[in-house]
Amino acid sequence: VQNQPTLMNFFKKK
Amino acid sequence: MFEARLINSVTFKKVLDAIKDLLNEASFDCSEAGIQLQAMDNSHVSLVSLALRSDGFDKYRCDRNLTMGMNLASMSKIFRCSSNDDTVTIKAQDDADTVTFMFESKKQEKISDYEMKLMNLDQEHLGIPDTDFSCVIRMPAGEFARIVRDLSQFGESIVISCTKEGVKFSTSGDIGSANVKLAQTSSFEKEEEAVIIEMQEPVTLTFACQYLNSFTKATPLANQVQLSMSDNVPLVVEYQIPDLGHLRYYLAPKIEE
User: How many Å lie between the alpha carbon of A8 and the closest alpha carbon of chain B?
Assistant: First the structure.
């Protein structure tokens, strides 16, 4: 099963 | 005072077409350097990053940094009222709550202006670090759009595998599976037809078709598209807008549970 993470899993909020 | 003049309205139309699938509204950050936009789609899975350099405009003036929140559907309505070869001038006063788009026909016999209300958008910006990607693929933008469209018929996700030999796009679904392999071109007549791969490490990542399809709405902007991939970081899909700037999309890869 594949999960779709959001971009916040990779980039920090400024 | 902010004023930006572009010779052909069609360029802005293409930019709008390329982002309005993913974004309902967006903040355009204007400075002396140019116009920038960074916004995530509603689900926060993808991000649009647009940069239009001030020197790419026919005329550009920005006395004070200004952020203009705009509804993209309304903006599209306005741009649909222009002809492709109309000159467009975007104007706003400092601290204004409206923006004006003025369209002038080439022979100057028709001049129209449309004023649009600005929005206060509370947009989150992400810090995107510079990354040395394991694989950078340059290929014809039309070919990428075609492959994404073709494979989307069969599955919800596309696996992109890049090695030194080439790049493979794969999908599978209820009716079966599909693979498209593109070899690096050894010789090509036109630069825009080339497939060029710069690889440090082979990479295989899985992405949702829905977003890839939205990104390909930028195809009319550029002959070539650049895909940048590393393990476990978002894909970057980049279209260079000739003499003006670039449009980049970021997409979080799918991860095995």
Answer: 8
Residue position matching structure tokens 């204004």: B96
Closest CA to A4 of B173, B221, B241, B234: B234
B257, amino acid identity: E
Q: Closest-CA residue in chain B for A6? A: B45
CA angle B19, B236, B131 (to 5 degrees): 140
- pLDDT digit string, tens, across residues B183-204: 999 887 888 999 999 999 999 9
Count of CB pairs separated by less than 8 Å, A with B:
58
The span from the CA of B248 to the CA of B40, in Å, is 12
CB of B6 within 8 A of CB of B58?
yes
Q: Which residue from B11, B73, B2 is spatially nearest to B34, judged by alpha carbons?
A: B2
Structure ipTM over 0.85, yes or no: yes
